Amino acid sequence: MKAAGDIVALRGPGGATIAEIGHAIGAPSGSIYHRFHTRDELLGRLWLNKAAFFQDRWTTALNEPDAEKAGLAAALSLPRAVREDFKGARVMLLHRREDFLSESWPAEMKAEAERLKAQLENALVRITRRLFGRNSVFARQVATFAVLDLPFSAVRRFVAMGRVPPPAIDDLVADAYKAIVSQHRPKR
What gap in Å lies between CA 159 and CA 95, rounded to an integer? Predict the structure, then answer.
């Protein structure tokens, strides 16, 4: 899995052939097929593992009791996770989810993909209600932008250039998050 991730991070999903992965780990292709039935399954498991890594940190950050601090912690979890797993960030941020999904996935992989999707949607609804007291379409758009889209945009450019985002990005994300949330939060 690590070899596949390294190859995808460098050359994209198309570069991660079973032969290339086998060459990277010094193993015959058959041994890879013994563990993963298809290349699609291997790439799917890679994507699911990386998605869970980033998303679990994001949703855990949302457990902070104070809503504003929770949203900020979630927003900051992305640049921090990118620094922790830069190659994983290249897998997740530079390629489309569809590059890894397959209709031939085993049932447990499809279930994990659905769990991740539901986890994200539910977390966005909860943080929207906590921040803005409602879950209107506009409030959800604002919350999604502040806690997800903004940090994603802040780090993606660095990841695409092959550079780890500098710590100063955290301050910029925090400043922008606070400005967005304070502008749209109900007055107390």
Answer: 11
